[in-house]
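User: Before I run my own analysis I want an independent prediction to cross-check against. Here's the chain; please return only the structure tokens and, at the end, one sentence I can use as a sanity check.
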Amino acid sequence: MSVGRIIESPDCVTEGAEWLAQACPRMAYAMDQTGPLPLRRKPDGFAQLLNAIVSQQVSVASANAIWKRMQQAKLTGPRKIMWASDEDLRAVGLSRQKIRYARALAEARIDYNALRTAPDDDVIAILTEVPGIGVWTAEIYAMFSLGRADVIAPGDLALQEAARILYDLPKRPTDRELRQMAEAWSPWRSVAARVLWAYYRVAKDREGIR
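Assistant: Structure tokens:
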């Protein structure tokens, strides 16, 4: 199986956006409201997934503070995590559960270079074998760290709510329903996700909801 398109530059996002605008009038309307879409590319590798684990179920400010302490303590690599004591990891702000997840990620010995050329389904399967990494985290990694053009995270509540508003649905679509809707956006599902995230902010600002 081929990997498909990789989003490497703003031009790639623009190409996907133009395709979506032609394929779907609602997508075209949303992009009229949002303006240019962000690239949102991130690095790949162990530290990016460790950061995702750190960020779970805490505020952005808390996650950033913990991650900064981990960087200062040089606790962002797999060997450092395996060598560190539980006390070391607790000292930078990790809970007992997140210490377990961080160690599991370090012990998984994932070949991050190989993930760059692995099919999307294989990437998701490999990552979700690690305790603490769910499907949403794996899909976000595929979209933004690997630049996959045709991946979406249908379990994301903001995407579900944006789809409800944009497509005038009676209720928020479920994970399965949004995954089915997203088939119409292939081969640019991750650009469609960028549209929906941007549209979510516009729609909520209009409603005065934060």
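Sanity check: The domain at 46-145 is CATH 1.10.340.30 (Endonuclease III; domain 1).
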